[in-house]
Amino acid sequence: QVQLVESGGGLVQAGGSLRLSCAASGRPFSRIAMGWFRQAPGKEREFVAAISWNGGNTYYADSVKGRFTISRDNAKNTVYLQMNSLKPEDTAVYYCNVVIWGRDYWGQGTQVTVSS
Protein backbone atom coordinates (compact mmCIF):
# COMPACT_ATOMS: atom_id res chain seq x y z
CA GLN A 1 0.00 0.00 0.00
CA VAL A 2 1.45 3.33 -1.06
CA GLN A 3 1.72 5.81 1.78
CA LEU A 4 2.92 9.41 1.71
CA VAL A 5 3.55 11.32 4.92
CA GLU A 6 4.28 15.04 4.83
CA SER A 7 5.96 17.01 7.60
CA GLY A 8 7.67 20.32 8.21
CA GLY A 9 4.77 22.74 7.98
CA GLY A 10 4.16 25.50 10.48
CA LEU A 11 3.70 29.19 11.10
CA VAL A 12 6.30 31.56 9.72
CA GLN A 13 6.55 35.29 9.12
CA ALA A 14 6.64 36.69 5.61
CA GLY A 15 10.15 36.46 4.22
CA GLY A 16 10.92 33.36 6.24
CA SER A 17 11.69 29.80 5.18
CA LEU A 18 10.36 26.31 5.73
CA ARG A 19 11.44 22.89 4.49
CA LEU A 20 8.77 20.32 3.84
CA SER A 21 9.46 16.60 3.67
CA CYS A 22 7.43 13.78 2.19
CA ALA A 23 8.35 10.24 3.21
CA ALA A 24 7.05 7.58 0.83
CA SER A 25 6.56 3.91 1.60
CA GLY A 26 4.87 0.82 0.25
CA ARG A 27 6.94 0.28 -2.88
CA PRO A 28 10.15 1.54 -4.52
CA PHE A 29 9.91 5.18 -5.58
CA SER A 30 13.31 5.66 -7.17
CA ARG A 31 11.83 5.41 -10.71
CA ILE A 32 8.79 7.58 -10.10
CA ALA A 33 8.36 11.32 -10.49
CA MET A 34 7.03 13.06 -7.41
CA GLY A 35 5.39 16.39 -6.82
CA TRP A 36 3.96 18.94 -4.43
CA PHE A 37 0.55 20.59 -4.62
CA ARG A 38 -1.18 23.04 -2.32
CA GLN A 39 -4.70 24.08 -1.47
CA ALA A 40 -5.62 27.37 0.12
CA PRO A 41 -8.98 27.91 1.85
CA GLY A 42 -11.75 28.33 -0.68
CA LYS A 43 -9.49 27.54 -3.60
CA GLU A 44 -8.80 24.52 -5.75
CA ARG A 45 -5.71 22.41 -5.28
CA GLU A 46 -2.89 23.69 -7.44
CA PHE A 47 0.44 22.42 -8.70
CA VAL A 48 3.55 23.73 -6.94
CA ALA A 49 6.55 21.69 -8.07
CA ALA A 50 7.60 18.31 -9.47
CA ILE A 51 10.80 16.36 -9.84
CA SER A 52 11.75 13.54 -12.20
CA TRP A 53 12.72 10.11 -10.91
CA ASN A 54 16.44 10.89 -10.82
CA GLY A 55 16.17 14.55 -9.90
CA GLY A 56 17.49 15.61 -13.28
CA ASN A 57 14.41 17.61 -14.17
CA THR A 58 12.39 19.93 -11.99
CA TYR A 59 9.25 21.92 -12.70
CA TYR A 60 7.70 24.83 -10.85
CA ALA A 61 4.58 26.91 -10.87
CA ASP A 62 5.31 30.46 -11.94
CA SER A 63 4.18 31.72 -8.55
CA VAL A 64 7.01 29.90 -6.73
CA LYS A 65 9.85 29.97 -9.27
CA GLY A 66 13.03 31.34 -7.79
CA ARG A 67 11.75 30.91 -4.22
CA PHE A 68 11.02 27.18 -3.87
CA THR A 69 13.33 24.26 -4.59
CA ILE A 70 12.24 20.64 -4.92
CA SER A 71 14.72 17.83 -4.33
CA ARG A 72 14.71 14.13 -3.49
CA ASP A 73 16.74 11.48 -1.77
CA ASN A 74 15.94 8.12 -3.36
CA ALA A 75 17.89 6.23 -0.72
CA LYS A 76 15.40 7.58 1.82
CA ASN A 77 12.31 7.52 -0.43
CA THR A 78 11.86 11.17 0.49
CA VAL A 79 11.09 14.32 -1.48
CA TYR A 80 11.68 17.81 -0.10
CA LEU A 81 10.37 21.28 -0.77
CA GLN A 82 12.60 24.12 0.40
CA MET A 83 10.51 27.27 0.58
CA ASN A 84 12.27 30.63 0.89
CA SER A 85 11.01 34.20 0.82
CA LEU A 86 7.59 33.02 1.87
CA LYS A 87 4.60 35.26 1.24
CA PRO A 88 1.16 35.34 2.90
CA GLU A 89 -0.30 34.03 -0.37
CA ASP A 90 1.74 30.84 0.11
CA THR A 91 -0.52 29.95 3.03
CA ALA A 92 -2.12 26.59 2.25
CA VAL A 93 -2.14 22.91 3.02
CA TYR A 94 0.72 21.34 1.08
CA TYR A 95 0.31 17.84 -0.32
CA CYS A 96 2.80 15.32 -1.67
CA ASN A 97 1.73 13.48 -4.83
CA VAL A 98 2.77 10.52 -6.94
CA VAL A 99 1.05 8.94 -9.91
CA ILE A 100 1.46 5.19 -10.28
CA TRP A 101 -0.15 3.37 -13.20
CA GLY A 102 -2.49 6.31 -13.74
CA ARG A 103 -3.65 6.49 -10.14
CA ASP A 104 -3.03 9.53 -7.95
CA TYR A 105 -1.75 9.05 -4.42
CA TRP A 106 -1.82 11.86 -1.85
CA GLY A 107 -0.51 12.40 1.62
CA GLN A 108 -2.60 13.87 4.42
CA GLY A 109 -1.07 17.31 3.92
CA THR A 110 0.86 19.71 6.11
CA GLN A 111 -0.32 23.21 6.95
CA VAL A 112 1.86 26.18 6.05
CA THR A 113 0.78 29.56 7.39
CA VAL A 114 2.65 32.73 6.48
CA SER A 115 1.85 35.81 8.54
CA SER A 116 2.31 39.32 7.20
Shape: globular
Computed CA radius of gyration, to the nearest angstrom:
13 Å
Helix content: under 10%
Tally the beta strands.
11
State which percent range the strand residues make up. over 45%
Low-confidence residue ranges: none
Distance between the termini: 40 Å
Give the biggest sheet: 7 strands, mixed
Helix run count:
0
Structural class: mainly beta
Mean pLDDT: 96
Q: Provide the succession of SSEs.
A: EEEEEEEEEEE
Give an overview of the whole structure:
The protein is mainly beta and 116 residues long. The chain is 0% helix and 54% strand. The chain has no helices and eleven strands. It has strands at 3-7, 10-13, 18-25, 34-39, 46-51, 58-60, 68-73, 78-83, 92-100, 103-106, 110-115. Strands 2, 4, 5, 6, 9, 10 and 11 form a seven-stranded mixed beta sheet that branches. Strand 5 and strand 6 form a beta hairpin. It is globular and about 40 Å long. The mean pLDDT is 96.
SSE order and pairing:
Blueprint: E1 3-7, E2 10-13, E3 18-25, E4 34-39, E5 46-51, E6 58-60, E7 68-73, E8 78-83, E9 92-100, E10 103-106, E11 110-115
Parallel strand pairs: 2-11
Antiparallel strand pairs: 1-3, 3-8, 4-5, 4-9, 5-6, 7-8, 9-10, 9-11
State the gist of this model.
The chain is mainly beta.
Keywords for this entry:
116 residues, mainly beta, seven-stranded mixed beta sheet, four-stranded antiparallel beta sheet, 0% helix, 54% strand
